[in-house]
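Hi R.,

Here's the chain you asked about this morning:
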Amino acid sequence: MGKQMTEMLAGTLEGIVLAILSARPAYGFEITAWLRDQGFTDIAEGTIYALLVRIEKWDLVDVVKVPSEKGPPRKAYSLNSTEREHLDEFWKTRSLPSERLERLERLHEAEADR
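And here is the predicted structure, written out as tokens:
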């Protein structure tokens, strides 16, 4: 089920990461750890780093390199004003699939009860 869950979340994972970054700057490892604490245990750390590289390349986040005692500098990501607009749009549109899935689930349950 892990790969299936990751694929299902792929469309919303960017929005989830942006929501995390809207609260405060974070490192990729912190984002992955927080997601795992919230029950997203199937998300690989590499998935988050690939997403962060992509949104950094698109200049949608601000990045600050912070020295690390254990190796090369770490990148702290934070939301910039462009991405805040994108996040606002994500929250507006994310409820549509959820509402439709809930409606389909109720229909399925009603059919099963017959």
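One quick note: The chain has a mean pLDDT of 82.

Cheers,
M.
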